[in-house]
Amino acid sequence: MAEITPQDAVPLSESEIVAARRAKLKRFRDELGFEPYGQRVDGLLPLNEARTRFSEDAHLAFDAASKEAKISGGVPSDSRATIKVAGRIVQHRDMGKLVFLFLRDATGDLQVSISKSAVEASAWELAKAADYGDILVTEGPIGRTQKGEVCIWATSVSLGAKSLAAPPEKWHGLSDPELRYRKRYVDMYANPETAKVFAMRSRIVSRIRRFMDARGFLEVETPVLQPLAGGAAARPFTTHHNALGMPLFMRVAPELYLKRCMVGGLSKVYEINRNFRNEGIDRSHNPEFTAMEVYQAFGDYGTMMELTESLIHELAVSMVPERQAAGLPVEAEGPVLPWGDLAINYAKPFVRVTFEELFRRGVGVDMRDFAAVRAKAREHGLHHEAKLDDWLVVNALFEELAEALIDPARPTFVTDYPSAVSPLTRPSRSDPALCERWDIFIGGMEIGPAYTELNDPDVQLAKFTEQLKGADDEESTFRSLDEDFVEALRVGMPPAGGLGIGIDRLVMLMTGSTSIRDVILFPLLKSMGSSGAAAAEGPTA
RNA sequence: GAUUGCGUAGCUCAGUCGGUAGAGCAGCGGCCUUUUAAGCCGUAGGUCCUGGGUUCAAAUCCCAGCGCAAUCACCA
Q1: Which of residues 197-226 of A touch strand B (CB under 7 A)?
Q2: Which nt sits closest to A186, CA to C1'?
Q3: Closest Cα partner for A112 from A89, A81, A80?
Q4: What SS3 string covers A253-318?
Q5: What does the pLDDT profile of chain A (541 residues) look like in tens digits?
């Protein structure tokens, strides 16, 4: 195997900015003796925590002692805390024999002041020549400057990593949305609010887990690679297992496996799951997205409604201090979290309205009067109406006219959907035309449905079979009957409530993000140029 | 998939009626021990997204393509 030298890795041509940075890297290593890619450092403080170590008293005492020492020629006593930090340089001001720079980490920014007289010659050269984007490690007492800026007065400086890439604009950051998504690693340090959103997302997901765990649910993991893509009527991504010679699908939902868990005796389970749907991309859809599915034995859709309302309300309450800390608008009463043009009020109880009532208000006729429904459908230009089943026409009209009546500024449960459009749901005990299902809408987005689950294997099999008949040629290539699932139901699944919540959309609402790409670290974009096209061809060997 | 808009230096953006390609930041060389988007002097940096077309002349007008965004469609 040939030795790879750093020179081999250098591109043939690069911008003068990059060339200048490479020259500095060489100089730092060869002339100044710094390892440009750093080493282990213990005892580092996050920058926001470092800032809290500042003491005005210690600063003033040191200031006074310094002046005295200047006259008497002694060494001033210093009670300031000495701390060690690391961060990326986001500002660099060279004043001659004094360098001010700002370091940034995920917790915030902190100034470092480097005086030529306070550090070794090599460290001084490093401080002078350091670039925007370099990762720096520094140690020293924390004080402030004449202008009052809290800072570390460096006594040592070293490199954590030399940055060889041309940095974004230091004031505007990275604003081109395409570049922000393609180079998220730059976006995250150049635009601090980006990193804040992802830190918030992490805490939100963590709170969801604590909420579920506190209620006695077990978190489980079920297959992403499935021989049959069941649990939702969405187009799956297809793949293949070489050793088994077996076609596989990326899951569109974990539902059928979580129900198998119920059959097995895990009576309260949840999974925070990545799903994959081979469909369009827009502000609220990414091909892979995160959901949480929940199943509770001997619960029903009412159990799931209480759980969902409590969870979302609790999350919204927890966002009040989060958003205040991040400088985002918020009202504690409710609470009210602004989102886009809306001020969404998460006060309990959430709005509840039946599908039938909303249909009557939105469409103006009784949904069971199919003649009137079809007349309305023609009136509103649903031209393929004649080909559709009665209830599908009802559903289409509902989505067209009734959903718009839902107040986007209030979380709203729409309950008791027509049974005919909900194959995995148990029909209503009081009215067989309806089923025990609700959907929750917030901000005009569907956040998730919940069902009283169907656990009668014969009814389930009949519904699956009926659904398959309705599938067109394309659908039938990936839709097939999950016989093992029906077999599991024959073993006996307890009655249960089930729930699915879109975590990305919930995080959008909680963090004030109006695009799903702003809450997914690396959203899918088309690949660029020929290398991307070649990669899409797959392995050739 | 459709429509509209955008694509100019590493980044953020100007570019008038079609007539030699511009600024700020970043970079490079200087000066400066208290800056807050530091400042000052000097300097370098371009496949104007790609490919065609119209024209004496195209960043600019036209066509096609690529990428991104918004809206719509699709997504129970």
Answers
A1: none
A2: B11
A3: A89
A4: CCHHHHHHHHHHCCCEEEEEEEEECCCCCECCECCEEEEEEEEEECCCHHHHHHHHHHHHHHHHHH
A5: 444 333 333 444 567 899 999 999 999 999 999 999 999 999 999 999 999 999 999 999 999 999 888 888 888 899 999 999 999 999 999 999 999 999 999 999 999 999 999 999 999 999 999 999 999 999 999 999 999 999 999 999 999 999 999 999 999 999 999 999 999 999 999 999 999 999 999 999 999 999 999 999 999 999 999 998 888 888 889 899 999 999 999 999 999 999 999 999 999 999 999 999 988 889 999 999 999 999 999 999 999 999 999 999 999 999 999 999 888 889 999 899 999 889 999 999 999 999 999 999 999 999 999 999 988 888 877 666 677 788 888 988 898 889 989 999 999 999 999 988 887 788 898 898 999 999 999 999 999 999 999 999 998 898 888 777 765 555 555 567 889 999 999 999 999 999 999 999 999 999 999 999 999 999 998 876 543 333 333 332 2
- Please tell me the distance from the alpha carbon of residue A457 to that of residue A4, in angstroms, as a whole number: 62
Q: How far apart are CA A29 and CA A468, in angstroms?
A: 67
CA of A133 to C1' of B48 (A): 28
Task: Indicate if CB(A525) is under 7 A from strand B.
Answer: yes
Nucleotide nearest to A181 (CA to C1'): B68
Q: How far is CA A377 from the centre of its chain?
A: 39
What is the DSSP code (8-state) at residue A145? -
CA dist A430 → A34, A133, A458, A471 (Å): 77, 65, 20, 30
> To which residue do tokens 């088994």 refer?
A244
Q: Residue A86: which residues within 8 A CB-CB, separation 6 or more? A: A41, A44, A103, A105, A135, A136, A137, A138, A160
**Residue A279, nucleotide of least CA–C1' distance:** B75
Q: Which residue is nearest to nucleotide B10 (CA to C1')?
A: A166
Which nucleotide's C1' is closest to A96 (Cα)? Answer: B32
Which residues, in sequence order, are CB contacts of A237 under 8 Å at separation 6+? A249, A250, A276, A278, A287
pTM of the model: 0.91
Q: Which nucleotide is nearest to A523 (CA to C1')?
A: B68
Strand-pair category, A496-502 with A288-297: antiparallel
Residue located via tokens 């006219």:
A401
Give residues with Cβ within 8 angstroms of A505, minimum separation 6. A284, A442, A445, A447, A516
Which of residues 495-514 of A have CB within 7 Å of strand B? none
Tell if A345 CB is < 7 Å from nucleic strand B: no
What nucleotides of chain B have any atom within 7 angstroms of a protein Cβ? 1, 9-13, 24-28, 31-39, 44-45, 66-76
CB A286 within 8 A of CB A524: yes
